[in-house]
Amino acid sequence: MAKRMILMLAVAAVFIASLGFVKFRQVKAAIAAYAAFQPPPEAVTTIVARQEQWPATLGAIGTVTPVRGVNVSADLPGIVERIGFDSGQTVKEGDVLVQLDTRQERAQLAAAEAQHNLSHSNLERMRSLTAERIVAQAEYDRAEAEYKQSDASAGEIRATIGRKTIRAPFSGILGLRQVNLGQYLAGGAAIVSLQSLDPIYVNFSVPQQQLARIRAGTPVRVTVENAGPEVSGRVTAIDSVVDEATRNVQVQATFTNASGKLHPGMFVQATVAFGAGDAVISLPASAVNYAPYGDSVFVVENLKGPAGETFRGVLQRFVRLGGARGDQIAILSGLKPGEEVVTSGVFKLRNRAAVQVNNTIQPSNNPAPRPEDR
After folding, report:
1. How far apart are CA 208 and CA 248, in angstroms?
2. In angstroms, what CA-CA distances link 49 with 157, 203, 332, 338, 373?
3. Do the strands 42-48 and 355-357 form a parallel or antiparallel pair, or are they unpaired?
4. Spatial CB neighbours of 85, under 8 Å, sequence gap ≥ 6
């Protein structure tokens, strides 16, 4: 009985050992197959990196503001008696825009002038009597004071009449009329906007790091979307204070605007030119793999596999980026001219990944793209 049990245990042990050996060979073969497995190459597009001379420029978003611009308003209350302009009209400095009713003031002026004439006559009479020592000097002084007071009263009424004649403070273009004939205007009520459009300002912000490169006279170009060619001007003023929130500084450029292309409040793209350009390697923006730990590109080269076979693969290169221009971005370091760089599909690549180049369709690489209507 004991011999039979020992024999059965020996047979079971041999069976289990044989089964374990078979499974070990299978797992080893699977590991070897997995190690030798190469994923299929990723389809990518490429471009040969080349060095270009980029102009040293800085782009910024600007806002058009007038050199002189006001909302013409009523200084004193009154009823609109006459309107001397039309909406959108060009006016010159001093042109009458609105005349308010001054009948009451003119009546007051007539009374004040009559009193002024009487006080003048009394003063002349007192002067001759004082010279003959008929009246005291105090009487003459009182008559002189009354004359001056009447003269001031008449002048005040004339000033009130003048303030009810509302004139253009400078030459420019009027906006939309906001008053009607016969309307009562309170003091400070808006009448029409007046803007001087030639010359005109464009205000924009630049980072504090670029402040040392900008000075009065630096050329600036602005473009308005779908509004024709760009307009050239020059920097005329730089704010003396840097914004603590953004660390940007306000810059003001002046442009001639005889055609009236630029209007106050317009959004424009400003480009500041710094002079001589920089030699950079330009790539499509789609070629850059952006990451918190550093920006990189993938360079295509002939690589060696584990078994010594040669295949087309990519090597990841960390680069330092410069400015952008349209669809392009400047590479300042980390890449050499003549190297083949992946321009699309970088998000699915890893270092030493196999690739298949297909340049039938290339990503956009235009330094000055324009939007298309589709």
Report:
1. 5
2. 80, 37, 12, 5, 31
3. parallel
4. 91, 95, 97, 98, 174, 177, 192
Out of 3.50.50.60, 3.40.50.1760, 2.40.30.170, 2.60.40.420, which CATH number does the structure's domain 58-67+194-273 have?
2.40.30.170
Please give the chain's pLDDT, 374 residues, in tens: 677 777 777 767 767 777 777 677 777 766 665 555 556 778 888 888 888 877 777 778 888 888 888 888 888 888 888 888 888 888 888 888 888 888 887 887 777 777 777 777 776 666 766 666 666 677 666 767 777 777 787 778 788 887 888 888 888 888 888 888 888 888 888 888 888 888 888 898 888 888 888 888 888 888 887 666 778 888 888 888 888 888 888 989 888 887 778 888 888 888 887 766 677 888 888 888 888 888 899 998 888 877 777 888 888 999 988 777 778 888 888 888 889 899 888 888 888 888 888 888 878 777 666 655 44
Give the Cα-Cα-Cα angle 117, 119, 125 (nearest 5 degrees): 105
Residues 150, 167: Cα–Cα separation, whole Å: 28
Question: What number of CA atoms fall less than 13 Å from residue 118's CA on the CB side?
Answer: 8
User: How many CA atoms are closer than 13 Å to the CA of 95, on its beta-carbon side?
Assistant: 17
What order of strands is seen across the sheet that includes strand 310-318?
310-318, 296-304, 340-344, 42-48, 355-357
Residue 156 and residue 80: Cα distance in Å, rounded? 21
Cα 83-89-93 angle, rounded to 5 deg: 80
CATH superfamily of 102-163: Helix hairpin bin (1.10.287.470)
